[in-house]
Design brief:
Length: 155
């Protein structure tokens, strides 16, 4: 079985099969690995995110790089954990997480909403969180561009 997966990766790398077929195969493999327990990534919109400052039990994570936030600002109540360190930070001790981010580390059932600029990096972050065992992860698909447009902010 492992050899078959290696051969599939090799064919994709050599472009003998289209990338879309590889993604489909990857999706099938994840489904087989997780079975009916495959991580589900929810989707939220502007209206849900707008209410988050009054819902401190939920966590909004901006996965853009700090330089991006300096240029645009950030959504109120969000904390910045760049995509490249999301897994590491969510796996950190409770003490370390609280000292770095000023709030409790999320529990496995905490609602965590990820966003970035357009919603692609945030989806990757949500998938990473689900792989760590977080069961209530969501992606703000419109992310910063949607927020900025609706709030009249620079994009």
């Amino acid at each position: 079985m492992m050899m078959r997966h290696c051969m599939m990766a090799l064919r994709v790398a050599r472009s003998q099969i289209p990338l879309s077929a590889a993604r489909s195969t990857q999706s099938n493999l994840l489904q087989r690995f997780y079975g009916s327990q495959a991580p589900q990534i929810g989707v939220v919109d502007y209206d849900v995110v707008k209410k988050l400052p009054s819902e401190p039990q939920k966590l909004l994570i901006d996965v853009r790089e700090p330089e991006e936030l300096k240029e645009t600002g950030q959504i109120p109540a969000s904390i910045n954990i760049p995509l490249g360190v999301v897994s590491q930070e969510l796996a950190a001790s409770e003490q370390l997480f609280k000292s770095k981010y000023g709030r409790e580390k999320p529990k496995p059932d905490t609602e965590i909403i990820f966003h970035c600029k357009i919603g692609k990096r945030s989806l990757k972050a949500a998938e990473a969180a689900a792989a760590l065992g977080f069961k209530n992860v969501k992606n703000y698909q419109g992310s910063w561009l949607d927020w900025a447009e609706r709030e009249g902010l620079p994009k």
